Amino acid sequence: MNSGPLFPENAQDNRIVLLHTCCAPCGSSSIERLLHEKNEVTIFFSNSNIFPEEEFFKRLHYVEKLANFYKIALIPDIYDHESWKKKVSGLENEPETGKRCFECFKFNLEKTAQKAQQLSISSFATTLTVSPHKNSMQIFEAGKNFPEFNKYDFKKQNGFLRSIELSKELDLYRQEYCGCEFSLKNRVR
User: Fold this and answer.
1) Are 27 and 63 in contact (CB under 8 A)?
2) Fewer CB atoms inside 10 A, N or C side of the chain?
3) How many other CB atoms sit within 10 Å of the CB of residue 166?
């Protein structure tokens, strides 16, 4: 179990957080926690890494269900898999949590930073940190060039376990792989 404060030292109460959300299960406990801490949350579903395109729209459908449950705004980004593939070109054979994942994190966080700027939202975070399959420190490193990025570690306080509970309660689709075609090839069968 992770311990320590959820919020970074510079966190403030009663603010809007643009939350990059990779999927509904990861979003569930992350949103619950942010709302519990009296933040306003807007979901940003930006995941051009997801393959195939049908999987992108399936995950988006369940994120819409989650947004409706919490009665919060959802902004879906366009699906641009080709741009993502260019970003990770040459890293296709990297292992999970390797250089390809790091570039993928940077890609998604940059898109979220751009959307936060466009919406004049001064704070954003990502649900990627709730997964035990993702290295939060690697995600924080990917976000260090974005001043609006807040280092929320949603694994803390049993965030992953809570996401499993909420997924069952809300009947959310839990995928078997990260999202990209490279993680799909390497998933445990």
Assistant:
1) yes
2) C
3) 19
